[in-house]
Amino acid sequence: IAREEEGVAALVGRTGTQQCQRSRDPDWASSTLGVFICLSCSGIHRNIPSISKVKSLKMDHWDDAQVQFLAKHGNAVTKATYEAHIPIYYYQPTYNDCQVLREQWIRAKYERKEFTEPGKQLPYTDGVKEGILWKRGRDNGQFLPRKFLLSEREGCLKYFTKQDSKEPKISVKIDVINATFQPAKIGNPNGLQITYLKDNKTRNIFVYHKSGKEVVDWFNAIRSVQFHYLKVAFPIASDNEVSRLTRNFLKEGYMEKTGPKQREAFKKRWFTLDHRRLMYFKDPLDAFAKGEVFVGSSENGYSVQKGLPAGTQGNFSWHYGLTIVTPDREYLFTCETETDQLDWIAAFTSVINQAMTPQEYASKQFHYKKWLLCW
């Protein structure tokens, strides 16, 4: 048994662990696919028994044939087969991503074999996608079916209040859209948040679909159309510049804030840090942000400090403070726990330590004026 465990464990180092990107050393493997996987992904593999048979590297028995199969295949060889032709814009999740993204990534590779042949026609590669998504009402909070239409030719996303409507309720240009999965916030495992700018205000749309495959197809279709727009708008851009496509928020959660005079009572608000845009909402599912602030770089006089300035007035319930220093003023926040405080400081620091791009310099003035009006 000891020799068997040593033999299987030794294969981990030789075959790689790309199956669960950036995960810790895997303790599980698929004896039928010949890949090593983490605990989280092992549960997904178990739900596809016709494709993958999961075994523990330490607790299960491996016969000689199975060990040799792992030695012959492994993650690198399997990746070369099942990930041979992944579209550049297709989102490849890591072990930190939500369940629906990881499950559909695994099913797309091994069950549907979407990436084994070049030029394969897939639901997110046509440049047009039309279908029903359940959308949360802006005022009543109810999720109702709405028809959505995504068009590469028009470069926009539309939705209609009725399936037979000729005119869309909204039509949003693809270059101002972001999409990120938010199952916990929306309260649905397939929840997707679509964010865009409307009249210089951040607008949130919360949707879901009962099918995990369908909602992930929508997500990758949006990325596909965005990538097409990027290549047309910036012809010299390389295929690897996918960072301009959809992005996850750097940090979200509750903090308390005070007003510009710093004497007002602190109020609990939901905050979202989307790179250099810090937005706050009264409720996490609000359609519009109540205010935004631009977070610049250290070379322009921005910094984040632990704690509140001495002599800070105003009532606050939470006692783990932090201060955002800008060239114009200081913004004061409090967090419920020290862990929250340190996480927010780390998120702000990661942004402030990055040099600003020319586009960010241009947007700085807009966000500054907007924050003065809304804060």
From TrEMBL:
It comes from the Eukaryota. Residues 1-123 form the Arf-GAP domain. Pfam families: ArfGap, PH. GO terms for cellular component: cytoplasm; plasma membrane. It is found in: Cytoplasm. Residues 211-283 form the DEP domain. GO terms for biological process: intracellular signal transduction. Keywords: Cytoplasm, GTPase activation, Metal-binding, Repeat, Zinc, Zinc-finger. The keyword NADP does not apply. Residues 126-227, 248-353 form the PH domain. One of its GO terms (molecular function) is GTPase activator activity. InterPro entries: Arf-GAP_dual-PH_domain (IPR052589), ARFGAP/RecO (IPR037278), ArfGAP_dom (IPR001164), ArfGAP_dom_sf (IPR038508), DEP_dom (IPR000591), PH-like_dom_sf (IPR011993), PH1_ADAP (IPR037849), PH2_ADAP (IPR037851). The keyword ATP-binding does not apply. This is ArfGAP with dual PH domains 1. It comes from Anser cygnoides (Swan goose).
